[in-house]
């Protein structure tokens, strides 16, 4: 019998000179070269142990060598100890069950899909991250916002969750599918007392989702104490893990709905997949980033105990920056988190006359080995001191003051 | 003014002896130590260049150093050349637009959410991966299956896509939201002639999604030639990338719907996010795995040209295995892909009398430096030869034959 020929289809080619740009890729701001103040990057710097496992588990489906044939699910793998990790992760957050998903936003989306019906409301704080709004929109939910106090504090009116839940009930005849609070927001770094919202939600019987993207992994978060039904967080933001990693932790009761198993049956094949968790689409992070999250976990458990030292450093920097003419820390004072929003009418004034315009501040800082402030910004910019030594924070403060003096601003 | 005290909440502690298990995590089957035949792992082994960038971009949001403030989207980043990569990736697949998402299954889910309305049908081949069924179920779609020929070939009846589309039209009064074909299935490694389905879909005006998880990245795939409207693939399965990475490529026309921008507006804050791609939930893979996909891309573009050599090696192994008493390659013959499904009534017979039962085969292979066959299986098992040298494939064939002889099976 003649063997069928092996298909040799033409393939669209990519010119060699275009391919060259993917060789020798490097990162300008790799940790160690600069002091990086990037507000989303400080909590995601890998531990040494995480760097080691990143290589060890770098290849594709590196977690799946010992996937149990019958369970066939990421959280059923015990070698490496993924199943054990999910239990410890849940315990650490004061919750019953945890899963690692691909992003914090995916965790929110999964909760919205599982708990909401199209047209339902989710009540959210008005400083929530854009991905909270998108997750609701993609899940077909409407958003009801809890106001904040505006300039300069932007304090979320936590007691207003009650009024907003009632508003939804009046408008639709049923409670919101859930309420979401951003524990610390990405705009001003304000810390909210989640227990206040937890109590309101319990009183109204509304599931309470706490977005701990900026808190869990860097500061102590106990979901039980805060009355959270669901906690979501971001491994690459706050758990010394590679992107993309999200955390979805919940109570036993919520797990029944959020981790519902697949029910679909193939109408011809009769195939079914009753072991798979529907809204997770089965397995999630099957490789290296999950292992970095696990490798960093023992260090994360320790580091959250040192949170008050981190806040002290942020407060120090905020005070030193405010000595610069026209500079003010926005958000609630004093800082209760390491993400700082700076308003600087002084640097803004300088930029108006400077030949490099707003870029002068970025460039002056970079000359001093400091990066992470968005290039071009002077009037408003954000930075994060998490994990920097006090000496480095002091150097950052001195550098800002030096730049201020150089360009004629008073430092008092 | 007295400063507010820094919160020092108690945190649930994790006992030290439980934390110890996350130190010194290692992988048993890291590439190089063994010949690994795991069917899902061969195409995801990193290139040297990918291993280097994995470390360089290991930290959290490592891709975001140069995120443009106004566009604020992963595909708008040009340093590292992410935006450029998405263009080259689309061109390489013969499509107009590409995005990197967190998993191939997420790419399918995004397409289903964007193109389907709850209750709509999606027509799929009956060998589709479980995640295809889950993605449909989670998106609220129903599944209509195209039959296959069953044992021993399991050949999908591609012409039947037409009848299934008509069935859906009769049943619901409208065409299916889309049709999906698994280019090469994970069960038998059968290659389907996608152009047949492409033509049917074009005739009926139904969007055609080609699941190229096992093909794009290892063999030439030209979406334009095949008539695909959407191609999805898996970086960790077939593009020498770390998990989790999915590829979502599409025509310009599909991009308008699948990459629709967010429309939500905060009713109190008036915040909106019109630059963000709704069903992607904004940014997707913001770190290391995306960079491994980019670093391996120049090698992938080259390696697909050597696909026929890969198929030759798989055919060789299938022939050699079939020389063992009671052994048969299932699926279409001769192989047109490197994933091989083996039925072995011979090894199964041995296992019935062996004190280690089905585990004997796994253990005999491991003693010879070969892993990746599911421990415990003998009657049916899968393996993949992709990327192994001919010498190694020959060694694998000889090892199987040696084990057969050792346990009294004839090798002819």
Explain this structure:
- The structure is a homodimer of 412-residue chains.
- The longest helix of chain A is centred in the last third of the chain and has 17 residues.
- Chain A is globular.
- By secondary structure, chain A is an alpha/beta fold.
- Chain A is built from 15 helices and 12 strands.
- The N terminus of chain A is likely disordered.
- Chain A starts with 15 loop residues before the first helix and ends in a 6-residue tail after the last helix.
- Chain A has a 7-stranded mixed sheet with strand order 2-8-7-6-5-3-4, with helices on both faces.
- Chains A and B meet through helix 2, helix 3, helix 4, helix 5 and strand 4 of A and helix 2, helix 3, helix 4, helix 5 and strand 4 of B.
Short description:
The structure is a homodimer of 412-residue chains. The first copy, chain A, is built from 15 helices and twelve strands.
Task: Please indicate the percent range of residues of chain A in DSSP E strands (runs of 2 or more).
Answer: 5-15%
Q: How would you characterize the largest beta sheet of chain A? A: 7 strands, mixed
**Distinct helical segment count of chain A:** 15
The N- and C-terminal alpha carbons of chain A lie at a distance of 92 Å
Strand order of the largest sheet of chain A: 2-8-7-6-5-3-4
In one word, what is the shape of chain A?
globular
Fraction of helical residues of chain A: 25-40%
Can you count the beta strands of chain A?
12
Overall mean pLDDT score of chain A?
A: 95
Oligomeric description of these chains: homodimer
Measured on Cα atoms, how large is the radius of gyration of chain A? 24 Å
Biggest chain pair interface = A-B, 133 and 133 residues
Q: How do the helices and strands follow one another from N- to C-terminus of chain A?
A: HEHHEHEHEHEHEHEHEHHHEEHHEEH
Low-pLDDT runs of chain A = 1-5
* Protein structure class of chain A: alpha/beta
């Amino acid at each position: 019998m003649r063997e069928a020929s092996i298909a040799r289809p033409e393939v669209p080619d990519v010119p060699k000179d275009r391919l060259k740009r993917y060789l020798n890729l490097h990162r300008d701001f790799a940790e160690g070269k600069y002091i990086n103040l990037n507000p989303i990057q400080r909590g995601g710097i890998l531990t040494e142990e995480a760097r080691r496992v990143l290589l060890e588990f770098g290849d594709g489906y590196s977690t799946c060598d010992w996937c149990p044939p019958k369970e066939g699910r990421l959280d059923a793998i015990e070698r490496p100890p993924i199943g054990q990790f999910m239990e410890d992760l849940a315990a650490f957050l004061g919750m019953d069950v945890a899963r690692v998903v691909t992003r914090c936003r995916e965790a929110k989306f999964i909760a919205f899909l599982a708990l909401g019906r199209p047209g339902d409301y989710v009540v959210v704080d008005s400083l929530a991250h854009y991905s909270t709004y998108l997750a609701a929109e993609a899940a077909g939910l409407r958003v009801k916002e809890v106001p904040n106090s505006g300039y300069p504090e932007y304090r979320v009116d936590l007691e207003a969750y009650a009024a907003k839940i009632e508003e939804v009930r009046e408008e639709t005849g049923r409670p919101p599918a859930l309420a979401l609070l951003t524990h610390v927001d990405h705009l001003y770094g304000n810390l909210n007392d989640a227990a206040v919202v937890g109590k309101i939600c319990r009183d109204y019987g509304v599931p309470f989702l706490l977005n701990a993207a900026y808190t869990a992994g860097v500061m102590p978060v106990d979901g039980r104490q805060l009355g959270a039904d669901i906690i979501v967080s971001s491994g690459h933001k706050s758990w010394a893990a590679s992107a993309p990693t999200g955390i979805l932790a919940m109570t036993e009761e919520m797990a029944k709905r959020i981790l519902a198993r697949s029910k679909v049956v193939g109408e011809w094949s009769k195939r079914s997949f009753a072991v798979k968790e529907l809204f997770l689409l089965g397995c999630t992070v099957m490789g290296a980033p999950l292992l970095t999250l696990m490798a960093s976990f023992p260090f994360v458990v320790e580091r959250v105990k040192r949170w008050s030292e981190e806040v002290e450093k942020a407060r120090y920097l905020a005070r030193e920056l405010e000595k610069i003419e026209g500079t003010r820390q926005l958000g609630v004072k004093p800082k209760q988190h390491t993400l700082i929003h700076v308003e600087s009418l002084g640097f803004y004034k300088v930029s108006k006359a400077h030949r490099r315009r707003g870029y002068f501040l970025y460039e002056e800082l970079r000359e001093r080995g400091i990066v992470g402030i968005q290039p071009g910004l002077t009037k408003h910019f954000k930075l994060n001191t998490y994990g920097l030594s006090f000496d480095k924070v002091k150097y950052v403060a001195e550098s800002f003051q030096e730049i201020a003096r150089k360009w004629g601003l008073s430092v008092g």
